[in-house]
Amino acid sequence: MRDVLLVLAVFLACAVEAVEALTIVLAVGVSRGWRSAVQGVAVGLLALAVIVAALGPALSFVPLGALRLVVGGLLLIFGLGWLRKAILRASGFKALHDEDAIYARELVAARRAGRTSRAAVDDWYAFTLSFKGVLLEGLEVVFIVVTFGSNQGSVPLAVLGAGTAVVAVTVAGIAVRGPLARVPENTLKFAVGVLLTSFGTFWGAEGAGAHWPGADTALLGVIAFVAITALLFVALLRRVHRRGVPGSVPAAEPIEVL
Amino acid sequence: MGALGRWLRSFGAFWWDFIVGDDWRVAVGVVAALAGTAGLAAARVPAWWFLPVTVLVLLGMSLRRAIRDAGTR
User: Fold this and answer.
1) Domain spans of chain B?
2) Where are the domains of chain A?
3) What ipTM was predicted for this assembly?
4) Do A81 and B50 touch (CB under 8 A)?
């Protein structure tokens, strides 16, 4: 059961980040040509793979209790950050992540930039923008892959979840030939936030020496608790938003219970 | 400030933003909650409930701050 949740969490987190990276790479490729953009993507993915290959085995030497305490704490901080943003977007207190607008902005910037070539790269601007897009969006996924995989003793399974998401988003991007603006990004971020917060709570408490009633099955209870709490916050903040608060924006797509 | 200083500053800022994010109080609260859980467990008191309750409180307080900031912008 934990393995299924592991793959699901990594798949969803990676899909969200891959959608955002795809927007940048598409804008670069369309405006400046694909050769250097693809080179940037390839080097970015290679750098991420090297980080996973280096950190994964290294973390296996850390005692499990200490690993769960540290990883649980970090996942909690990350998860609460994702949840906070998703709840604020769903209730109208934060603007939506608009892939179409970001794509248009990147397109204009890419067309204005000058062209220089270095070593085997024809267009350095296209290369670095694609590279940075993939590396920065992928760094959080790498952290999730390495920490989830190490805690479960199955880094390859986590890599499988991430890889499947990258392939799915890439195929969808090629099919649509544009940014994936229709992906319910905020709902995905909400789900990722719930899973990261739940795993963080579960592992953090175990690492601190607590014992969950029902052992592993308590994880399902934690997920339900976090999801219901977050949905209640969305409902509550939507009511506050309807009463009108200066600085608020239109609400995001409704959060659907997965 | 030299080039190395600027690089160190931006390097530190990147990792601060990556790990701590928008609300540093959440990070501090999580560390305190883990310490509280460890304290309860060391005292042989059931400790599993402490972290979920703290998560609820931390999320609520962080959202409240975000809305207050949106209202005062």
Assistant:
1) 21-72
2) 2-243
3) 0.89
4) no
